[in-house]
Every structure is written in C-alpha cells, then in structure tokens.
Amino acid sequence: MLLAVQLATIAVAACPANLANDLATPADAASRQLITVRASTARSTYATTRTWVRGEDGCWLPEGGPYTARVGKNGVRVNRREGDGSTPAGLFRIGRTMYGNSPNPGVAFRYVRLRCGDWWVEDSKSPAYNTFQRVGCGRRPPFKVTTPDMSTSPRAYAHLAVVEYNMHPVVPGRGSGIFLHVQIGKATSGCISLRRPALLRVLRWLAPASRPEISIGVDS
C-alpha cells in the first residue's frame, strides 16, 4: 500500500505545471475531459475558459482555448443563492443531456430541442426545483415563474450544456439553471457564456464516456 501511494505521488509530481494539474480541488479520477473557467477577480464579469484532456499518465494536457467567457453580473461566488446574479465557484459535472432552440449541432450527448412551454424550474419551493420541465405551450406551470420559458431565448439558448450545480443533492434556494450557453454581449445571471463558434467547438468535443467536469473559480 505504501509503495502504491509513493508511486501515485511521483506520478502526480511528474505532471506539467498548469491550471488543470494544479487545481485545489482535483477533478474526479474517472474524468478524462475538463473545462476550466477562471475570472481575474471575484467581481469580474469576464473569465478565461480552456479545455483539457487527461492523458494515460493521469496528467492534464491543454486541448483548446483560451476562450473569452462572460460570467455572472455579480461575479463568481462560492456561496451562491437563487437570483443573486453570481456564477458558482467549484467543480461540477456536465449534465448528461444538452438542450437548444436550434437543431442538434452534432453533439455526442442526448440532445433535447427546446419548444414553447419548456422551463428550468427556479421556484425553490417546488419539488421540481432546478430541473427541466416540459409543461406545454400556453399551459400554466405548476410552479412559480419569474422569467419566460426557455424557448423565448433563441440566441442565448441556441445550444447549451448543463452545469450540475446544486444537483447532488438539490438544496432549496441555493441556485438553479447554471448553463454553458451562447454569449449575447453582456454578463449573465449566473451562467457561463461563450461566443457561438467557441461554444460549438466545446460542446462537440465533450463526450459522455469521458465524464467531463467543469471547474469555475478566480485566479487569486
């Protein structure tokens, strides 16, 4: 056992110094794909996004980027709350289903085409809090709504991946609907947005079998 630990330590020490290899909270050992999002300060609404692939030796190597991202209008926070306008800091899985108002752009994940009456539940008192719900066009949702349904955002939600923040478990009031979506020229309400070409490159690159994760934080 001691020898195995020593060998593992040597292997980690041999990895090149870079953001992905030096994360304070390392990605899951089973993950082979990683997205990093780093803001310069906790109040910044801009961030740098990069993608990484894990080699056979367990070390992370750069794959793509840097891409300029927009984050929450109130920056990046560890203790995010519903509606506070910040992007949550931490390490999260990428959801197993992607969504979009536009046709599937060629992603490997299950893809759901959005339509009128599709919601992401923001009502912290609802049993469906922080989940996707297909209610139907023109029907009154069985939960409180504060924003229009997802079909009314054809630009931002042309394509999106779900960041599994506050999902394992879901904690009422901690925040909902954190996506990686298309940039529309301004800070977000908490999501991470990329220009459409960069987003498409990332979404097409992601593979379910690689168990991708996303690390969000601040340079300092």
Low-pLDDT residue intervals, each spanning 5 or more residues: 1-12
Strand order of the largest sheet: 1-2-3-12-11-10-6-13
Number of alpha- plus pi-helical segments:
2
User: How many β strands by DSSP?
Assistant: 13
Mean pLDDT across residues: 94
- What structural class should be given to the helix and strand makeup? mainly beta
Report how far apart the termini are.
Answer: 36 Å
Rg measurement, Å: 18 Å
Spell out the helices and strands N to C. HEEEEEEEEEEEEHE
> Overall 3D geometry?
globular
> How many structural domains can be distinguished in the coordinates?
1
Residue fraction in strands:
25-35%
Query: Largest sheet, if any?
Result: 8 strands, mixed, barrel
Helical content band: 10-25%
Short recap of the structure:
With 220 residues, the chain is mainly β. The protein has helices at residues 2-13, 196-205, and strands at residues 33-39, 46-54, 60-70, 76-77, 87-88, 90-100, 110-113, 118-120, 132-134, 160-163, 179-182, 192-194, 213-218.
Would you write up a description of this structure?
This protein is mostly beta strands and 220 residues long. The protein has one domain (2-218). The protein is built from 2 helices and 13 strands. It has helices at 2-13, 196-205; strands spanning 33-39, 46-54, 60-70, 76-77, 87-88, 90-100, 110-113, 118-120, 132-134, 160-163, 179-182, 192-194, 213-218. The strands form 3 sheets. The chain has an 8-stranded mixed beta barrel with strand order 1-2-3-12-11-10-6-13. A hairpin with a 5-residue loop joins strand 2 and strand 3. The chain is globular, with a radius of gyration of 18 Å. 36% of the residues are buried. Residues 1-12 have low confidence and may be disordered.
